[in-house]
Design goal:
heterodimer, A: about 300 residues, alpha/beta, Rossmann fold, 2 domains, about 15% strand, B: about 140 residues, mainly beta, Alpha-Beta Plaits, SH3 type barrels, five-stranded antiparallel β-sheet, four-stranded antiparallel β-sheet, about 10% helix
């Protein structure tokens, strides 16, 4: 049966573990996978620009021996002429074997999946879902820490609007003995529905305002960007802004085996001086993104993962 | 107030007071030739006040949708002046093209001819979510 990936919870934890296993195998033996997708085509339909995600998908397909086609902004597609998402996808489905799609409107990949003759991968739909970022994060955590359970996970920054944070919390809440430490200004704390679903799932969490108070307790620190315009008043911004910037001084209070992650792009929330610290995993995270997308393409096209 | 008993049709009872006109519009009762009675703010031991609609014709009624508009409703089916069935309604699992998603960032705001589909996310709280963007919508609101 044809599968799509629209939301991370479309995959069971068992399927996620299997996907991550395949990604590990690809990393260990890349040559084995060089021809796997020969003569297969990936279409990247990006109705809004993205550097990392689109190139990561394209690199993934090329490393599997396949080809890529597509567009990188709505201006260069028929959407500019008013074509619907459904018609675009029906058309592209005649040319490509699998589609990775980013769209500014939430739920656009669901519309695509209703009509597509080929598998659809959601490569980000507005502020809604971004499941391949979550797979990237999970692979990174497993490779850095050796497990996805029994972890204290700190989420820092904009926890209200950060879709990567919401997806990762929902995905990790399904593993055993996970505890979240949520570090954000009150204005940018997690939405009520997420707090409710964590309580329902019985996942313990604490909400704090300052990173320096809790950094020493964390196994994982997932940083996100705090934008000035999200604050309701200037005084709070000035009072709290430095709490969400990770620098060597704050890092000196952290454990030696902390894993520092960031979905990127960053602006100033992680000081450049942290980049050379072995605990900084965010560029390894980027590389993992390519490998896990290779595993996902294999799973959706050949059921190999 | 004297309203004749109906012969063949429905008595839609236990409507939350004030909602009868919404149901009247949804069922298209203004276009029927038969007798239709709307009783508003009737006394009710259980509800305090309630609305009742009586329809003297067996028209097609989508019970699921009535359940969405007001899950507390009871529908009595009348034949030859006798009640032959009494249905207690509940919230449907899915509603299609009844409510519109209010999220301006939802794909349904721009995609042509896409069905507006909502699924029941929390029966206790009577909350539905848009199939596409998952924006919450409380049953019976707008």
């Amino acid at each position: 049966m044809m599968r799509h990936l629209l939301d991370i919870v479309d995959l069971s934890t068992r399927e996620i573990d299997e996907l991550l296993d395949v990604a590990d195998q690809i990393i260990a033996q890349p040559r084995e996978y060089r021809e796997k997708m020969r003569h297969r085509k990936l279409a990247t339909l990006f109705f809004e620009p993205s550097t990392r995600t689109r190139l990561s998908f394209e690199a993934a397909m090329l490393e599997l021996g396949g080809s890529v086609l597509g567009f990188s902004s709505a201006d260069s597609s028929s959407a500019a002429k008013g074509e619907s998402v459904a018609d675009t996808v029906r058309t592209v489905g005649c040319y490509a074997d699998i589609i990775a799609m980013r769209h500014p409107k939430e739920g656009a990949p669901t519309v695509a999946a209703q009509v597509s003759p080929v598998p659809i991968i959601n490569a980000g739909d507005g502020g809604h879902n971004h499941p391949t970022q979550t797979l990237t994060d999970l692979l990174t955590i497993r490779r850095e820490k050796g497990r996805l359970d029994q972890l204290v996970v700190g989420m820092c920054g904009d926890l209200q609007f950060g879709r990567t944070v919401h997806s990762l919390m929902n995905a990790m809440a399904r593993y055993k003995s996970i505890r979240f430490v949520l570090i954000s200004p009150r204005e940018l704390c997690i939405p009520d529905y997420l707090r409710e679903s964590m309580r329902k799932a019985g996942v313990p969490f604490v909400e704090v305002e300052k990173l320096e108070d809790v950094i020493g307790t964390l196994d994982i620190l997932y940083m996100t960007r705090v934008q000035k315009e999200r604050f309701f008043n200037e005084a709070d911004y000035v009072r709290l802004k430095d709490s969400y910037i990770l620098d060597p001084e704050k890092l000196s209070r952290a454990r030696q085996d902390l894993c520092i992650m960031h979905p990127l792009p960053r602006v100033n929330e992680i000081s450049r001086a942290v980049d050379s610290d072995p605990r900084a995993a965010y560029f390894r995270q980027v590389l993992n993104g390519k490998f896990v997308r290779m595993a996902l393409i294999l799973k959706l096209l050949e059921g190999e993962a | 107030m004297n309203i004749d008993s109906i012969q063949n049709g429905y008595v839609i009872d236990h409507i939350r007071a004030g909602r009868s006109m919404e149901i009247y519009r949804y069922l298209g009762l203004d276009s029927l030739d038969c007798s239709v009675a709307i009783i508003r703010n009737a006394k009710s031991a259980r509800m305090g006040k309630k609305d009742i609609i009586k329809i003297d014709e067996e028209i097609p009624v989508n019970l699921e949708m009535l359940g969405y508009i007001d899950p507390g409703i009871t529908v009595n089916v009348i034949r030859n002046g006798e009640r032959v069935d009494k249905k207690h309604l509940e919230l449907p699992q899915r509603v299609v093209n009844v409510i519109r998603c209010k999220n301006p960032r939802c794909i349904t705001q721009i995609e042509q001819e896409v069905d507006q589909i909502f699924f029941l996310a929390d029966r206790g709280k009577q909350t539905y979510r848009c199939l596409y963007c998952e924006t919450a919508h409380k049953s019976g609101e707008g």
